[in-house]
Amino acid sequence: MKQILMVLTSHDQLGTTGAKTGFWLEEFAAPYYVFMDAGAKITLASVKGGQPPLDPKSDDEASQTVATRRFKADLSAQALLARTFKLSDLPATVYDAVFYPGGHGPLWDLAEDATSIALIESTLAAGKPVAAVCHAPGVLRHPKSPDGRSVVQGKNVTGFTNTEEDAVGLTQVVPFLVEDMLVKNGGSYTKGPDWQPYVVTDGLLITGQNPASSELAAHALLTVLNAG
Question: Is there a smaller number of Cβ atoms within 10 Å at the N or the C end of the chain?
Fold first, then answer.
């Protein structure tokens, strides 16, 4: 049985706007059920532990999917999410893969969190895959390869586009733009049409562009896992 660690944000403030943010429901729910239905053992963690904050916009009716509706009827999954482990309390070496759901929250906490940075570095160095979708590729901002280079340098990657960020009106609110960061760190960044599914796999690194890419990114992670 494969053990997959899903790491969520604990950050709920959308900059200085006074609005709330957090993780995006579809980007958690769809991968969660892909992994569960594949028979994987899933561990949920967040920066602070406990209930991670949900981006309220991801709970709008317009943002609902088959996976989010399944989650809302799944009391056991809700109970697991309400008591995520604190990331720094978990041993990094026991998991076969790590998956980061997005939402704007990770740009503030997980992108800068020393435990998360070390987790990504050690997971990749151990020959195990790391996947991140939408804003969550922002967690790749600081991790380094053993040779001291960014883990995205020379890698084919994607993530939330500048035009998608502009479309939601948050270009001047977020601490950095995912697309710009990936390019600056030496990633070979590509993208599909805004809001359409687009996932890139390069070796052990799997990145998805937006919420619509979350299920596809989870399947891509399983493909890498099963090939290992």
Answer: N
